[in-house]
Amino acid sequence: MKKKKRGASAIVDSALSLHDDVAALRKNFKKLTADHKQLQERVQDIEIHLNLLTRLLTTLCIEKFGMRVGVLKRIIKRIEKEAIRDSQILHLESLYNLSPEGGEDEGEDEEDDTEPPAIADDPWEDIS
Questions:
Q1: Residue 77 is part of which domain span?
Q2: How far apart are CA 81 and CA 74, in angstroms?
């Protein structure tokens, strides 16, 4: 009789433990969905602000600075290409830093305070 009671109490204990685990998971899930909703709202707010800033900058360039639309489009395309190139370079640098045989250790990084040399065909020289 005592073995049945011990077995039954073990089953009840494991069922209660399982119930507690499920309740904790449910609580975490609710928290994650709330966090996800907040992040979506923040992204939407950022998109709205970015759209407004883009419109403002476009209006300033065309109406106040007297730029033609074609010139503005060419500048935007050039900036997009440069941004893609820069992001690809940063990605490659991060991959190089992650590789175990990749040169320097993290503790031995020394910051170089000198400015990079001027590029001979710098597109910013055409703008200013």
A1: 68-98
A2: 11
